[in-house]
Write a structure and sequence with these properties.
CATH topology: tt1808, chain A
Number of strands: 12
Strand order of the largest sheet: 3-6-7-8-9-10
Order of helices and strands: EEHEEEEEHEEEEEH
Helix content: 10-25%
Radius of gyration: 15 Å
Distance between the termini: 41 Å
Shape: globular
Structural class: alpha+beta
Length: 179
């Protein structure tokens, strides 16, 4: 049973119930494309279909216990070497190894501030922010006192973005461009 029982998707951020807006066509398209691009990781390690090694999910409630927050990341992942079985429960009560937010006008301020602080405090190793308005992908890596910005890329860039740097990613495709 979801922790936050509501008619529409919500998150608990800093004690406040925040409504998640219905995704725009651009947001929904980017979320699907992101899943497709990273699908080579969404399996056991090794084999002919890609590097594997991850459980990848979308829109799953995660409880960040110390903060008392519950987030529904646009995409998130758990390393299989840390979690041999797919995390269970509603909400999931273990921290992800990677989270990604696709910024929406109504919730962007939470994604780049409060969520980032909570993920840092809980030791989430990698946080991506996909900004459709500014057409950028920002990749952040956990450090002791702050996230380090390790990559900012935009339309026209082909990158290897940690922790999925085993493949090349055409950033414009994530942003809805047919490149």
């Amino acid at each position: 049973m979801p922790l936050l029982q509501a008619e529409e998707p919500v998150e608990l951020i800093g004690g406040e119930i925040v409504r998640k807006a219905s995704p725009s066509p651009a947001h929904g398209s980017s979320q699907i494309k992101l899943g497709a691009v990273l699908d080579a990781f969404n399996r056991r390690s090794g084999g002919p279909r890609g590097p594997g090694g991850w459980w990848l999910m979308a829109e799953v409630e995660v409880l960040y216990e110390r903060a008392g927050d519950v987030y529904r990341h646009d995409a998130l992942g758990f390393r299989r070497d840390r979690h041999p079985e797919r995390p269970k429960g509603m909400p999931v009560r273990v921290r992800p190894d990677w989270a990604c937010e696709i910024l929406s006008p109504s919730t962007a301020r939470y994604d780049v501030s409060q969520k980032q602080r909570t993920l840092l405090a809980h030791g989430v190793p990698h946080y991506w922010i996909l900004d459709l308005e500014h057409e950028t992908l920002t990749v952040l890596r956990h450090a002791e006192t702050a996230y380090l910005q390790v990559l900012v890329a935009g339309v026209g860039d082909v990158v290897r973005a940690e922790p999925f740097d085993a493949i090349e990613i055409v950033v414009g495709e994530l942003l809805g461009r047919d490149e």
